[in-house]
Amino acid sequence: MSGKKRIVVLISGSGSNLQAIIDACKAEKIDGDVVGVISNIADVFGLTRAENAGIANEVLSHKEFASREIYDQNLIKCIDAYQPDLVVLAGFMRILTPQFVQHYVGRLLNIHPSLLPKYQGLNTHQRAIDAGDKTHGVSVHFVTEELDGGPVILQAKVPIFDGDEASDLAARVHEQEHRIYPLVVNWFCQNRLTMSGNCAILDGKPLAENGYANEE
Ligand SMILES: Nc1nc2c(c(=O)[nH]1)N[C@@H](CN(C=O)c1ccc(C(=O)N[C@@H](CCC(=O)O)C(=O)O)cc1)CN2
Ligand SMILES: NCC(=O)N[C@@H]1O[C@H](COP(=O)([O-])[O-])[C@@H](O)[C@H]1O
């Protein structure tokens, strides 16, 4: 692992995006290694994925702490024990405190199942279907204090077909997630991706100029 970036992944569930990142690291499509996986929920399949990959993993349950702030303080201690260069949220379903965000700002990524700024928050697939949208998608962004409001790095679009259930759309979105999240993680590991103010910078240029921000 010498010289490669150290990545800690936070999960709350199945971990298919975690698996995509693990696989990309193993295939040397990411100049990094996942050195730790932390879940706020026990017995999720994402922890099994980490175990199967020989990656250190642990549970830090938010239910064990009196407040969001105290949980986040302990989560920081857990994460920092791995000495990460990058912290990746991969289906991590907790709103993070300003203190946590400030501790990792600029090296904290999230993947969100919508074309931000549309549909911040939860239940995005059903909301898009209910709105009669014909296009949906996924966004990878830097995490800021504003929930799902951080600078967008890369997006991918998918069609919504008549008769789609939320599960159909989620599966279509997942395919794109597993494609673009490893790309973005590798950009960071290659020292090509930074955050300046509320803007993502790739190869020294604001992403809007590079055109990546709205990749099909
Ligand atoms: N400060 C920030 N925290 C988080 C961000 C962010 O951009 N800024 N991204 C989210 C990820 N996320 C959507 O992509 C998200 C996760 C969780 C929630 C939410 O409402 N969580 C509830 C609990 C829900 C549950 O347990 O099922 C809560 O924390 O009370 C909304 C959006 C990660 N955090
Ligand atoms: N608001 C955050 C959010 O909804 N994130 C979404 O959770 C799923 C996790 O799947 P996974 O556990 O299989 O990677 C992903 O679809 C991700 O976009």
From TrEMBL:
HAMAP family: PurN. GO terms for biological process: 'de novo' IMP biosynthetic process. Keywords: Purine biosynthesis, Transferase. This is Phosphoribosylglycinamide formyltransferase. Its EC number is 2.1.2.2. The gene is purN. It comes from Thalassotalea mangrovi. (6R)-10-formyltetrahydrofolate binds at residues 68, 93-96, 110. It catalyses: N(1)-(5-phospho-beta-D-ribosyl)glycinamide + (6R)-10-formyltetrahydrofolate = N(2)-formyl-N(1)-(5-phospho-beta-D-ribosyl)glycinamide + (6S)-5,6,7,8-tetrahydrofolate + H(+).
